[in-house]
Design brief:
Helix content is 55%, strand content 10%. With 327 residues, the chain is α/β, with parallel strands linked by helices. The chain has 2 domains: 2-113 and 186-326, Rossmann fold; 120-178, Orthogonal Bundle (Histone, subunit A), CATH 1.10.20.140.
């Protein structure tokens, strides 16, 4: 089994700085776990590691996909596990860094529990059938036959959830109930010690987000998005075209809003995303939470945070070695 660390948390929380400090002290190599930093050419808007930062520690899984691709969490897991194995073979520590909770969760859970992506065609076909015969009860009864536990949790009039549960079964031959059960099992391949960065004062984080957006604009975000969009690298409907910062600038380039309005939208969308990230990571069992600010909302000295992270890494490694010896 692979021993690794993960540095997670909301946008602009300080993940990069902490990960570099840990990598230098623990002979670590950084593996990207950000769903937008994997795309080539999307550098400024995703706050991708700079050349100077990459010189401080090896970085992996950046720029591995074209922005026109829709990169799944299942595919990420395959890449990440293989990468972590190579890092470990060199005697170094894999350190996953990023704020995409789904990517981290995919690493930590057992394989074989990946939920297939929703199919627009499948849903349309079912909805057309319901419109023709109006029999919602029959649809729910079919779900009850294949997955009674899910059926009992979903009201028959919640057609969207009924269809999704049936789609999962039809696509995989495995019920949603079983996949949910498997997702709670730890991965047999990799042992991930997760460090989550958090804030006592939400306004402190929001101020950092606003400052980061202003810096991105100064570094040339508009030019970056314009170049990608004009050559069709981020086509409409692609995952990349919906990335925060890119979606809003594209709207400006189309003449749908002023640049000032686009910047305000980026800041608002980023703050909302950070709030969702905090909720996700706070509900992740077993994670070590490190607060970046004190009770008054002032940023703590970086050295204090690094020492706490190192202490957690040491304790986590001891537990990992204990479990490995038991096995």
């Amino acid at each position: 089994m692979i021993f690794s660390l993960a540095i997670t948390g909301p946008t602009a929380s300080g993940k990069t700085a902490l990960s570099l400090s840990l990598a230098e002290r623990l002979s670590g190599e950084i593996i990207c776990s950000d769903s937008m930093q994997i795309y080539k050419g999307m550098d400024i808007g995703t706050a991708k590691a700079t050349a100077e930062e990459r010189a401080r520690a090896p970085h992996h899984l950046l720029d591995i996909a074209h922005p026109s691709e829709n990169f799944s969490a299942f595919r990420y897991r395959e890449y990440a596990i293989e990468c972590a194995q190579k890092v470990t073979s060199r005697g170094n520590l894999p350190i996953f860094v990023g704020g995409t909770g789904l990517y981290i969760n995919t690493l930590m859970r057992a394989p074989g529990c990946d939920v297939p992506e929703a199919s627009v065609e499948y849903r349309r076909r079912i909805l057309d059938k319901i419109q023709n015969d109006g029999d919602v009860e029959e649809l729910w009864q079919r779900l009850y036959q294949v997955d009674p536990d899910s059926a009992e949790k979903i009201h028959k009039n919640n057609v969207k959830r009924v269809i999704r549960a049936l789609e999962i079964y039809d696509a995989t031959g495995v019920t949603k109930t079983e996949l949910d059960r498997r997702s709670r099992e730890p991965s047999p391949e990799i042992f991930v010690g997760m460090i989550t960065l958090d804030f006592h004062n939400r306004d402190t984080l929001y101020a950092r987000i606003d400052k980061r957006v202003d810096i991105m604009m100064g570094e040339g975000l508009v030019d970056e998005v314009s170049a990608l969009y004009s050559r069709g690298a981020i086509p409409d409907g692609s995952t990349a075209s919906q990335a925060i910062g890119y979606k809003e600038i594209i709207s400006h380039l189309r003449g749908e809003c002023t640049l000032s309005e686009a910047v305000d939208k980026i800041k608002l969308a980023t703050r909302r995303y950070a709030k969702r990230q905090l909720t996700w990571f706070r509900n992740t069992a077993g994670a070590c939470t490190l607060y970046m600010d004190d009770n008054e909302g002032n940023m703590r000295p970086q050295d204090e945070v690094v020492l706490e992270a190192l202490a957690f890494a040491g304790d986590f490694k001891s537990r990992y070695l204990g479990e490995t010896n038991e096995n």
